Amino acid sequence: MGERWLVAGLGNPTRRYAGTRHNAGFLVADRLAERHGARWRGLTTRTASFELDGRTVLLAEPLWSINLSGRPVAALLRRHGVPVERLVVVQDDLDFPFGAARLKRGGGPGGHHGARSVHKALGTADYARLRVGVGRPPKGTRVDHWVVQEFSAEERERMPELLDRCADAVETLVRRGPNRAQDVLHTADAR
């Protein structure tokens, strides 16, 4: 059996949050599932899987509040025998403008409560985080209100390219490692 990877998209469940900035992680996981014809299953955590060059990629979307994502992610790692080094957490990030994305192993969760929950549940930061830029809120808008707002019409128009680039980066990470995956993201930024 080949190696296994877990790609955990962070977001908030229910239709109310479907097209919001906080659900960028779900959107990337959905794009990967769509590309590979993977079928979602599950009630408390949606999972799907596909094969990529002899490796099994398990996709997950915890259907808990985003702030409680850590427990289901840790449980999936244990249940499927995936080492933390082959975990990729996909999350929204206020520190990058819309359209930017960064891949990094380790580091702190910053102000992202979902990332903080995963970090606490695992007791380590030795996993990859794909941070999808959603930009800072306009002056006078609270962060907690900003992240649960839908993307603007202009952002929705640019979304397919961003999701494809993020999916490309995840696939490249699994196939060729973190340096090549970062190149996918940084090369697109330079355009």
From TrEMBL:
Active site, per annotation: H22
Subcellular location: Cytoplasm
Top-rank lineage group of the source organism: Bacteria
Keywords: Cytoplasm, Hydrolase, RNA-binding, tRNA-binding
Site, Discriminates between blocked and unblocked aminoacyl-tRNA: residue positions: N12
Main location: cytoplasm
Gene Ontology MF terms in the entry: peptidyl-tRNA hydrolase activity; tRNA binding
GO terms under cellular component: cytoplasm
Residues annotated as binding tRNA: Y17, N67
EC number(s) recorded for this UniProt protein: 3.1.1.29
Subunit text: Monomer.
Known role: Catalyzes the release of premature peptidyl moieties from peptidyl-tRNA molecules trapped in stalled 50S ribosomal subunits, and thus maintains levels of free tRNAs and 50S ribosomes.
Name of the protein: Peptidyl-tRNA hydrolase
Gene: pth
